[in-house]
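A protein record in our archive is deliberately plain, so that people and models can read it alike. The record that follows is passed on verbatim for readers who wish to inspect the format.
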Amino acid sequence: MPQCPKCKAEVSTEFRFCKQCGAALAAAAPSVQPASRPAEPVKVPAAAAAVPAAARVQAERENASRDVETTQPVSPPPTRTERERLSPPAARAGAAPRGKGRLAAVAVVGLLVIAGAGLYYYGGGALRGYLPFGGGSGKPSLKAEQHLNQGLTFASMKDYDNAIVEFGKAIEVDSRYAAAYANRGVAYIQQRKLNKALDDLKQAEGLNPKDKMIQYNLTALFSLQGQRDRALDALDRTLELGFGDYDALRKDPDLNNLRSDPEFRKVLEKHKVFLQ
């Protein structure tokens, strides 16, 4: 307890005067709370303290951006269609080189009309009743068909010299390949080598006597040679076998010698064909 400053007697803080000596006491002082423990300073690592404040802010921003990037949803890899759409055509996997598809497109042609002539080229698949050779299956070998298709390609470009060479190679591989003889005969007609054309077409007829296209080409050949009777007989046989390209009968310039003959219409009418 506090003491009186005069008599040193213990006094109460509730009174203003000492009970012993009556001396005035100091004003009651508010109770003093013990001082609180000062907070300890935050220890900063030496390396961090050495980094400038601006650098620390930049580092915190970079760390935040990396956190955002890692939380972004991962896009699935593009599909094959998307890759082909995004990549240039030349870079696409498996893209065919230019010019490689031309032969394949022509090779599947079963029937090809030569413009301006009206004569027909056809592949082995278009021939019916192909005669087998040597007891084989009756189907031409793959190599013979390849030469035939190559010849058809040259013929479509009006390169008849090379077409004849390829048809000849097909015949060398398969001597009973009627389509090769027939197509080489038509190529000879284009070159107006009519005697050679006749030999090949007759050979094809012997191998496949029921093929209407061979008969049609014989009709054109005899017409060009001025042999009207033989041409009309071949026309009769052509229609009998089911030839139905009436536009060719009407417009083919190789049949001009027949159209002026009255017997031409009689043959047509026999088979109930009436041209306008």
Observations:
- The mean pLDDT is 72.
